[in-house]
Design a protein that fits this description.
Length: 371
Amino acid sequence: MKTPYYHYDLKLLGATLDAMGQAVREDDPFVVHYAIKACYNDAVCRMIASRGYGADCVSEGEIKHCLEVGFKPENIVFAGVGKTDEGIDYAISQGIGCFNVENVPELEVINERAGLLGKTVNVALRINPDVDAHTHEKITTGLNENKFGIAMEDMVSAIRKAEKLEHVNYIGLHFHIGSQVLDVSLFAPLCERINELQDMLDGEGIKTTYINVGGGLGIDYEDPNGHPIPDFEGYFSVFRNGLKLRAGQKVHFELGRAVVGQCGTLYSKVLYVKQGHEKKFVILDAGFTDLVRVAMYGSYHYIENTTPHSTTLEPYDVVGPICESSDVFAEGRMLPATERGDIYAIRSAGAYGHVMASTYNYRDLPGEVAE
Ligand SMILES: Cc1ncc(COP(=O)(O)O)c(C=O)c1O
Ligand SMILES: N[C@@H](CCCC[NH3+])C(=O)O
């Protein structure tokens, strides 16, 4: 296969889904959705859909793709901070399960569009819980300063508004504090916040059946071989122990990275090995156009030379071919002596990898293979 390309390990995906399924107990009122924004690959999505999971979408395109790969419309939630009228109409016409609504003007638009289509739709209100996920600032979403959701102090009035509108049916609350959260105990403050908000809703006599806690469970980028499967047990038990649920309530999860992150690898060919002024550069045929996470967030990805010629390790700056100084995958990384033509594997690239690729520098998008 022509490099650079993504390889998805469907066996590992299957094992990850098994582990996730086993971590949810029979009496847990838990419903898991796959946050499809993490990876659109057909075979990957089909395998997830075939296990009966729901999907979390943020655009008309994502909803269409979910329906094509086998997710059921009633198991799809439509989130997203700026839903378009076209996207809203499409979601309504397809009968998706719930809209996670980000603000009151959006609620009014959904009501209006549903009225025009002669439908009534389920809505949950995304509340900004002001809980710190202690993750990278660019993937933190649940703080007051972030653009997401309705402020807690406006929650009751927004629900009252929803109750008055004819074509929306208020079912509950939605939260998402951020992504790549490795310490699952950081979700405990979210549970406490939800408990406080539920007490407030009880006081107002507001009935809530749907609690969506978003996604965010992280993966081990440092050691994908040692920890190929995330801590689903720990993650679900924080919510099992932390949430005080009312009778009949269901807890929805929207996991992306944890489901697909470790099963993807970006393979790239070494074009040149260059001795620079003080250091050696490995110049790959993959750049940030293929995997943007390092350039965008300074993220760490484990890198292997799959065709080593010796076991001697040397420090290399691993860079791409894009005309930008930020096109760097690693600096001073200890790797086996490398030659032109070697194939590098950039690991843990299944989530937010191919989906964030671009054609900058008039490049092709990277290929994909799932097996
Ligand atoms: C609302 C919402 N739900 C779910 C996710 C999926 O997050 P993750 O891939 O961290 O599980 C995201 C992305 O962070 C999101 O914004
Ligand atoms: N794209 C980010 C995660 C953002 C998740 C979407 N809310 C990453 O690669 O880590």
